Amino acid sequence: MERRVLFRVLLTLFFVGALALAFGMRLVKTDQEEEWVPYVPYPEQVDLEFWLENQVAYVKVCITFGDAGYNVSDWGDVVREGYELWVNSEIWDWTGPAALVITTFCYTYNLGELEDGTYTFTFKAWNFTVKSIRFTIGRLISTVSIDPDALYLWTAGKWITAYVELPEGYNVSDINVTSILLNETVTVHLLDMSASNSAPTEVGDSDQDGVPDLMVKFDRAGVVSYILANINLTKLFEKRFMTVTLTVSGKLNSGTPFQGSDNIRIIRSNMGKPGLIPY
What we know:
Immunoglobulin-like
């Protein structure tokens, strides 16, 4: 008799489980009433995507839930303070049974036309920070140091060296080195183990300020040729020296552009005539 009762109990549990799987139901047994309660998602549940379209900035927020027992009643309005933007949403969790269906809710925020700069967008739920995304409008303003800072046009040498630092929150290791240009013209010289005139790139801290920098090198002759083609040679011979601005630009692996400039002094030889400058 006891075995028959036990068999019936097990058989009943089997059919209940099979029905739950067949109809995709979550069996929940709690002491509280079935109701909607506030819910704050984990960062892993939230995806943030930024893009620009016709100069207008957008951020798309997608939240993925493990079942259908969730609801977003209010996505919140965009609030801005300087370069900080955030929204405060209201998300609910149903404490009763819910279909075991992976559910995703998405919403796109129109941030409008933003001036150049680096921004942080933060998604909140019930005033709790869930996840943030950092993005840049325009180019990242990087710190660039050119070596040498006094360029004697007639002296020998292979390289002009540039050290690039990125703003806080960005990593110089994420720079796409092949995208780097000097004054949008001279390409960076890359390391080629098979070539005798190749130049290395290196991440370090040349000025020892605690901020990592990327060292890159440009062909000296190419830089000098560019400078001579874009300055007033008569003025250079009259003054013997001039100050020029060299700008290093490029992109991160994400496609975000960066740019920074440094001023150096160019010094002519004591020999030579306008139009014929040995270097």
